[in-house]
Amino acid sequence: QPFGWPTVVSTTWRRPGGRPVTRTWPKNQAWIASVAGRLDVGAWLRPRALACRIGARACALAVEDDPLEVLRMGVPFDTCLSLRDGFNAASTVLNAVDVNKRVIYLRGDDGAILARQLLAVGADLRLLRYRLYSSLAGPDAEVVERLFEQVFQDIVRETGLEETGDGAPVALHGGFWYDDGALAPIAADDDLGAELAARGLP
Questions:
Q1: CA distances from 65 to 40, 44, 62, 95 (A)
Q2: Strand ranges (DSSP E) for the chain?
Q3: CA dist 165 → 118, 171, 182 (Å)
Q4: Number of other residues whose CB lies within 10 A of the CB of residue 164
Q5: Quick check: 99 and 93 in contact, CB under 8 A?
Q6: Residue 201: left (phi > 0), alpha (psi -120 to 50), or beta?
Q7: How far is it, in rounded angstroms, from Cα 48 to Cα 126?
Q8: Among 113, 131, 105, 118, residue whose Cα is nearest residue 76
Q9: What is the pTM of this model?
Q10: Alpha helix (H) ranges present in 40-182?
Q11: How far are the Cα atoms of 133, 143, 168 from residue 136, in angstroms, in the given order?
Q12: Beta partners for 58?
């Protein structure tokens, strides 16, 4: 196993019904209690999924709730987070278990990961987003960017958090965490809905 990590059995990470057991861990529960009333924790943690089509391909954009799947976030794009040989791969553990971090995946109808992005609640309780990695190019890449933007803005609105490009999230469980730099906020796109509709997207 990479870095000598023990084999992790999926059933130890999830409770019956599919809810991640990591959310019940004491340090995650302490963070949830500490931010209650300052952000809508339910909106931050709730499942999100968006069915869409990119070109001729049926796809789904969703916030990943399976910690084991989050560990794979660097593999499809051969980044420094790859479990195969990524020198920052250990960082994926905190992305998987810390409740103040979420990973969004775009998957094709075959389950293959086509794009991903990490979001996090900063120490100052502002919302951070990191580089969007995608295997798609050209017009399809533009659609992907707009889909991720749509979901991100939904989270901003529903959680009540302000977006920022500064700061960093707290490493709730200690250990190594790689920060590749949060993206600066972009101007709101008044034509986002019209653009998505023109492409047959929700």
A1: 18, 12, 9, 11
A2: 49-54, 57-63, 101-108, 113-121, 127-129, 133-134
A3: 13, 18, 5
A4: 17
A5: no
A6: beta
A7: 20
A8: 113
A9: 0.85
A10: 41-45, 67-70, 91-97, 138-159
A11: 9, 10, 28
A12: 53
The separation between CA 87 and the C-alpha centre of its own chain, rounded to angstroms, equals 20
Between CA 64 and CA 135 the distance in angstroms is 18
Contact 115, 143 (CB under 8 A): no
pLDDT tens for the chain, 202 residues long, are 333 343 343 444 555 555 678 889 999 999 999 999 999 999 999 999 999 999 999 999 999 999 889 999 988 888 888 878 888 888 899 999 999 999 999 999 999 999 999 999 999 999 999 999 999 999 999 999 999 999 999 999 999 999 999 999 999 998 899 988 899 997 655 455 554 454 444 4
Q: What SS3 state is found at 197?
A: helix
**39 DSSP β-pair partners:** 36
Q: What's the number of CA atoms in the CB half-sphere (13 Å) around residue 93? A: 16
Q: Please, are residues 145 and 104 in contact by the beta-carbon 8 Å criterion?
A: no
